[in-house]
Each structure stands twice: as structure tokens, then as C-alpha cells.
Amino acid sequence: MDQRPDPDDLLERVMRDEERQARGRLKIFFGFSAGVGKTFAMLEAAQALAAQDVDVVAGVVETHGRAETEAQLAGIARLPMRMVAYRNRQLPEFDLDAALERRPGVILVDELAHSNVPGSRHAKRWQDIDELLRAGIDVYTTLNVQHIESLNDVVGQITGIRVFETVPDHVFDEADDVKLVDIPPDELLARLQQGKVYLPQQAEKAGRNFFRKGNLIALREIALRRTADRVDADMRQYRADRSIAQLWQARERIVVAIGSGVGEERLIREGARLAAKLQAEWLAVHVDLPRQRQAMASRERVVGYLKLAQSLGAETASISGEELAAALLQFARSRNAGKLVIGQQSRGLRHLLQWPRGSLAQRIAAAGGEIDLYTIARSRTREQPEQRSTDSAASAAEALLTRRRRTRGTLWAVASCAATTTLAFLLDGKLHPANVIMLYLVGVMLVAMRHGRAASALVSVLSVISFDFFFVDPRFSITVSDAQYLLTLAVMLAVSLFISSLTARLRRQASVAMQREARAANLYMLGKELSALLTLDQILEIGRRHLAAVFGARIAFFLPDSADQLRLTAPEQDGSGAHVLHSVDAGVAQWVYDNGQAAGKGTATLPSAAALYLPLTATMRTRGVLAFAIDAASEEEGQLAAAQLALPENRQMLEIFCSQIAMAIERLHYAEVAQDALVTMESERLRNSLLSAISHDLRTPLTSLVGSADVLAANARLDDDARAMARTISEQSQKMVGLMNNLLDMARLQAGVVTLNRQWNALEELTGSALRLLAKALEGRQVETRIAADLPLLRVDAVLLERVLANLVENAIKYSPAGSPITIAAHVEQSDGSRQVKVSVSDQGRGFPPAMTQHAFEKFTRGDNESSTPGVGLGLAICRAIIEAHQGRIWIAPQEAGQGATVCFTLPVETQPALPEE
């Protein structure tokens, strides 16, 4: 067997090495849970590098207040965090631009799965790290097992807690180094009790939920297995890079070879049982031999066998090879599989024909001594006549097309033999008999190139008979007078058959190679063209064109609207202007979109549909559905093409095309999202600037107007009507001043220029101050305060919190009946392991409309868009901005319709200050 390395593999390896040298190296410190010491281990490794004079910078390091972790940062330069404005708060984020400008040798970026604050360059921190790697900067980072995308749901089922910050598997798999940081679960629980993982109040809650010993044991096993899988992949890559054919059986792996005959189900199930008994991975593989042209029924059986193996937990593959034993051994060695399972060959004519070179088992045993060989008896069930009569429509169509091809081949074989005989007969006497034989061989080769093996075999036999009848004495008779001509005729027949067989095989191989090359070229061009497109219509048009060119199909796309309901988008049209896919079913497409699985023709789901429906699955979500219908000249050819499409290699190619289109749609989507976010931010900035300018310029004349009106109202020389008008002017001007103050405060809060003057205050005092500000508006109303006597002091900005209470009470006055009471309540409660003060303001008005509860805190949102109630809808928006600036939360409590409204907010309780000694 040829042991030389594949030139294509060598070229790919060289290109991969060049790309790897240009990128930085990524090292992941991997653990099964928080608290195992990932950050500490990362800092230890960083200190070791710093001791070797490597430029190490801490980009983001989350110490979580642990003193021993903080101590490990000593001597390591820290990169200042970038402050990002989000919902009236300034949040710290990793400064990617500063890291790129600094270009350290190694940068520490903790928490790989972290989601960046909206408005950042990238949505995820792993995307920041990828940009650092592309810039040639080495990165150290940390990751927990529950954040790996493929394991997220598994961990969620075990712990009952689903995390939404995930990292794609390829980021973990492509890391240059992964270090497993592992400690026993008992030791981790002890660290939790000692407060080394979370603060004491949080540790108690965590111990009751996520940090149960059973959970930790399961997570530890998952992390160990995932690390082992990566190590196994590294080992196989190392063997491939160095062309090591010898097996390194570091773990059990079984390959089951599947044929195309009847009765392979037993072989598959025995392979599955053997894998389960040995606790080994197993792979089911079918080898497609170019010299053997399989009937459609056989190929359909292969597809069914591979689906059965996949349902039993196998990884499936369909490969091509010139020789069955060599192809199986090469595949087993490439996957580092130490065991090979094959079916026992039947005793018959084929077995006798294989006797000179040995059976399949003998050839494998002779060439693959390091691989254990298992031979399983196939099922003795044979295909019955009634089973043959129920062949699929595709098989019947192939039989019909095969008969047509054979008929054409037979006619061409006869015509070729007749033409060659006529030409040789015209040149009789001028050509030596050996040259006549050459003419016949040329005819055999031409027929084999055009019409395949059966027609070339027929023309071989006809050529021998014609040569004997027309050119061997006695002529015009099939008898031979000279015995030497018997040898000539036998050799001529053997050579003809050999040439016909070899030519037919080369023709099929060339056809397969050309198909693969065309598909690879189309895939390359598709990716190249999609990467440069800027509109959705262009993406869909390019996708349709390439799919039609490769598969001879007609395409329609379904894309979701804002409610995730699919709509048919720009279906392709034929020359008459009618929709090509006139039988497209929107219901099937919606099911495919909702479930993320293929359906329709050729699948197990809704197989009676006229088209095949495939989900356009991208990295983050499903972006739409592709409807795929074969474009064939006849019904038989369409059925045959549909069956061909179900073959694993063709389906895989189609899924790659769909993935490329989905990724292009997702790229365009995120580009539009980024552009919209930029426009929104700029619009918000301009609006805030305008509000600030207007409110600032109006406050001075309004203040003058209020003062002048108050002077007139106090002037005794004016009559009563004039003084009443002056008081009205003063009241309305004061309301305008309040509105301008709201506008100015909202603009300042949105711009992030407000600095909290946080002091220790009693809530009772702040409530009293707010009620005194509203004394005139509260005339005729009763305000009930239910503030707990043991309420602690709050470290807040007194002026801003007074504003919150005043706005909430003023809102209750506006939207409740005159004279109805208002209630202000406050008490301490526990939430998420921490203490906080909950404050509520309730009235007895009609309450908030149900559809408004989610939007009531947005700017310029009013209870009644058109009413006599004054205001522009900024009061609650200001309240939310102030409360969130204090790390609190504000919401509308659910109430029955017509039973009033209750607005609640919470503020954190901090460690109380020590009282001064008397």
C-alpha cells in the first residue's frame, strides 16, 4: 500500500502552519465550576512568564474580592478599563483598542464567555480575543464547562440552571493550549463555606442550588471528558501532520464497515452492542468503489443503514476508494481506531473469483496487523420477490433510465462494430490482420468512453466474431482453419474486455472527479461572492444561481419577520414568469424554522411534500428556510435526482451551501444592527443636546416670569381679578419650570454627567422633604406612610432620591381621583442572598393599562396620549435613571384592573456606618 503523504494534505498543513504563525497563541484555563482556581492558575502562569522578562499585561482579571488572587497581580501591569454608558450607568469593559495599541507579549483576559455591554465593538468577549489573536498577541483566558455551546443544555439539565453566555465549540477546539484546573468537589465545597468563592450571603444560596455535590461530580466528569476529547483530537492531528500510520490506541474506537447488500442491519446492531460493551466510540463507514456502479436500490439501502447507525449513536461517513481493504484500513488509521468490524462474506461465485487475492478479511488481516478484526455473520434474510416489487419510485425510475441507456449503448455497439468492419473490409488487402485488430480495439475504446462497460463488452464480443467471420480463413464462416488464430482471437477478446473495463472505470472516475471539482469551485465562488455582498437580495440571488448550477434545482427562500413568521422572499421564476416552486408549502417551511430540522421530500418528516426544506442555520440562530426542488426533464429523472440528493455526500454538500448562505445573512443582519445602534446613539445624543439647550435657555425667562407674577399677585393696588390672573400665571409658569427641570435632568442623566453625592440618609426624612415639595398639590388628600421602624440608613444622593419620591407621588396625584389616599410603604427584604430596601407608592386610580407596564419607564411615555393631564412623560423615565444609578431596580407591581397602581423600587443596603461615641 502506498505510504507516501498526500500532496494536498501537505499543502494544507503548510498553509495552516503559516496562518498559525501569523496569529497569537490562545491558552485557556478550563474548569468545571467557579472557584476551582482558574484565575489563580492563570495569574501563576503569568507571573512565571513575567519572571522570564515577557511583557505581560492584565487586560481583564476578575478577582471577585479574593485576597490571594489579588496578591498574584503584584508586579503585572494593568490595562485601564473603558467606561461604557448603558441605561444611565457607566459600566467598565475591556479596552480592546488600548490592548491593540499596547501590543504586549501576553495579555490576560478573564472570562472568555463574557457578554460585552451593548454598544461595544463586539457582542462577545471571545470575539475581542479573536481580534487580539489576529493581531499576533498571545492571550491567556479562563472558561467554565457550562459555557461551551454544545454542553450548555446538558449542564442545564443537570444543575437546573441555564446560562446564556456561551462560547462556540470551535473557539475551544482551536485554542493552542488548554489547561484543566481541577480540584475535588469536597475541596470546592469547603472553599465555598470559607467564603473563598462567593461572599457569605451569596455562598449560602449557591450551596443550596448550583453547588450541590452531585452537580459538581457530574460537571467534573463532563469537563474531564471534554478535555480528553480535545487531547485525543490533538493526538490524531499530530499523527496526521507527521504521517504516522501506526495506531496509538489511547482510547477505544471501533469502525463498522457497511455494505450495500441486504441484511446489514445485524452488523450495525452488533457493532453498537460491541461499542456499548467496551464503552467505546464507534463509526459506521461505507466505501464507494468507483469500479462498481451501484443500483439506486443499493444506494438507498446504504442511506438507510447510515441513518440506522446514526440513530444508534455512531458517527457516519461515506468515503471513496479504489480497493475496499485499503480504504477501510486507511480510514481506521486516520481515526485512530483499533477495532474493525466487517460482515462475513457469502460463499458463492464471487467468493471463488476472489480466491487468488484472498477474501476481504484475509486482505485486512495481512495489511493491518495492528488492528483487531471482528467478522460478524450477516442476517440470512434475503430479499423476497414481493419486496422487489415494492421498490421505491426512484429505483423504478433508475431501472427505466438504465434500460434506455443500455438500449442506446447496444445500438451504438452494433453500429460501431459494423462501421469498423466496413472500413476494414474496404481496406482489405492493404492492412495486415494485426492492424485490423487495432481498428476493432479503437472502436471498443470509443464505445467504452461513451456508453460504459456493458456496451463495450458487447462490442468486444461482436468485434471478435466479426474479425473471425470476415478476415480469418475460411472467410464468411466462424470456423478457424489455423489453430494459431484461436490464440489470436482469445487474446483479442481478453484485451478488448480489459480495455473496455479500464476505459469505463476511468470514465466513471473522471466523471466523479469533475463533479467534485465543479462543486468545490462553486462552493469557493459562493463564499467569495457572498463575502462582498451588501444587500439581502444580492445574497439570495447568488445563492439561487450557485445552487441551480451545482444541483440543477430551483430554489425559494423563506425569511422570518419581526414575529418569527416566515414569508416567501423573491422566489426564482422560469422563462414564462410563473413561480418555479408553485407547490411550496409555507406550513412545512414554518415547521422547519421552528424546529431547526430538515423536512419534505427525501426526509422522514413530511416526505410527501413536493420540495425539500432545509433550515438556514447560522452561528447564533436559524436565519430562514431554503425550499429546494429538483429541475428535471422527466418525472423519472426527477425521482432519480431526488434519490441521489439523499446520499450522504450530496446532502453534506447541500448543507454546506445552506450554511454559507445563512452566515452571509447573519453577517448582513449584524452589520445592520450595528448601523442602527450607531444611528440610535447619535440620534439620542443629538436629542439630549437639544433638550438640554432648550431647557437651559427657557429656565431664565420662566424664572423671571414667575417672579414678576408673584410680585403682581402680592400688589394690593390691583383688583382681585388681576391678582388672580397673576397667581394663575405664576402657577402655570412654575409647572413650566418643573417641565424644563425634567428635560434638563433627563438630558444630564442620559449624557452620564451626573455624579452621585452619596451620603447616609434616613428614608423617613427624604419622604418628608418630598411631601413638603408637593404640599400644595396634596391639598385635600391623605398620604399614609408605612415605613418600618427598623429601616436602616441608605447611602444615596438625597436630592435625586427626593426627586424620585416626588415624581412617583405626583404621578399618583395626576392619575387617581381627587381626595383619594396615597400610600408610601418601605421595608427590608432579602433577595439573591443580599439585603435591600423595598419602597412602594400606591394610589387608588384606574392603574396602568396592561400593555403599558413594559414601556411605562421609557421617555415621553404617558398614560393617556391625548388628555388634559399635564406632563410629557418624563417622570418615570427620570425615576428609572436615578434608581439604576444607585444599583437599584424599579418596576410596576401587578394589580387587578381598576384597583389602582403601585410602583416599587429597591435600593441596596450597605454596611451601616459606626455611630459616633457620645
TrEMBL record:
One of its GO terms (cellular component) is cytoplasm. SUPFAM superfamilies: Adenine nucleotide alpha hydrolases-like, ATPase domain of HSP90 chaperone/DNA topoisomerase II/histidine kinase, GAF domain-like, Homodimeric domain of signal transducing histidine kinase. It comes from the Bacteria. This is histidine kinase. The chain crosses the membrane at residues 409-427, 433-449, 454-472, 484-506. It is a multi-pass membrane protein. Member of the two-component regulatory system KdpD/KdpE involved in the regulation of the kdp operon. KdpD may function as a membrane-associated protein kinase that phosphorylates KdpE in response to environmental signals. Residues 693-911 form the Histidine kinase domain. Keywords: ATP-binding, Kinase, Membrane, Nucleotide-binding, Phosphoprotein, Transferase, Transmembrane, Transmembrane helix, Two-component regulatory system. SMART domains: HATPase_c, HisKA. InterPro entries: GAF, GAF-like_dom_sf, HATPase_C_sf, HATPase_dom, His_kinase_dom, HisK_dim/P_dom, HisK_dim/P_sf, Histidine_kinase_KdpD. One of its GO terms (molecular function) is ATP binding. Its main location: membrane. It catalyses: ATP + protein L-histidine = ADP + protein N-phospho-L-histidine. Its EC number is 2.7.13.3. It is found in: Membrane. It comes from Herbaspirillum frisingense GSF30.
